[in-house]
Amino acid sequence: MSTRGQRPLSRYVSTPPIRVAVVEDDETLREEILLPALSDYGFSTQGAASAAELYRHMLSQHFDLVVLDIGLPDEDGLTVAQHLRTMSDIGIVMLTGSTDRQHQIQALHSGADGYLIKPVDLDVLAAALHSLARRMTPLPHGMVAEQAPVSRWRLEADGWRLVSPRGKIVALTAIEQCVLTTLMNASDEPVLRESLIQALNHNRYDCDPHRLEMVIHRLRRKVLSQTNEMLPLLTVRSKGYVLPRDAWHRPTTTVG
After folding, report:
1. Contact present, 216 and 233 (Cβ < 8 Å)
2. Which end of the chain is more exposed for a tag (fewer CB within 10 A), N or C?
3. What band does 199 get if pLDDT is binned at 50, 70 and 90?
């Protein structure tokens, strides 16, 4: 099983990674695209080439979510979704190469929680999985949901999930997660470019000033395109970057 998630930083309560089974008979798509990409978004992943292989994995492992191709060699994906729904409350996101609206209706009637058309946008797939996991996560007995200010941004799931003030979810890659959690740990003080580069290199990313600027640029553009909201990540001229205090909800619980 692939578990390429990064260690949570000290201001975040460590939670187990979201466990995702990816059922896709196209080996290249499964092994070279979907599994590595979802691992890079912080998910714990397990691949399966058929319904039978998925069922075997489920005998010994628990999954929170499944990414399920409709066209499988041994069993129709719609039938698999129906079977999964009768035996568990696992979250189901279905993939298909068909644009037929009837397939989408059938998938949702079969118990799927979401439906994406191939070739799937990996940012969208990761965000859909985070959104589904967030809706499915039960609160401990006697606890109520924390009411964060609606006008602020927040990081969830050990920093892997960015939530906008309007509640829209952006899934973060490992390098984006490292950048934002490093900035969040600095309170509202600017973080020098050199310090960010050092944090990235410490987390096994080869980084230089040019690449850091590209990561920041891509992150801002990605958030804007997915939320229609500007990410409050400010550049401090000749120094580095800062997350302004009044725009972010900052966790107060620490680990250890």
Report:
1. yes
2. C
3. confident
Using CA atoms, how far apart are residues 210 and 216, in angstroms rounded to an integer?
10
State how far the alpha carbon of 177 is from the alpha carbons of 3, 54, 85, 121, in Å: 15, 30, 32, 19
Tokens encoding 11: 């201001």
106-131 mean pLDDT = 92
Q: What's the pLDDT tens digit per position in 213-252?
A: 999 999 999 999 999 999 999 999 888 999 998 899 876 5
Residue ranges and CATH numbers for the domains of the chain are 19-136 (3.40.50.2300), 154-247 (1.10.10.10)
Q: Which token pair is 249?
A: 């909800």
- Measured from the Cβ of residue 56, the count of other Cβ atoms closer than 10 Å reads 12
Structure tokens belonging to residue 232: 């409050």
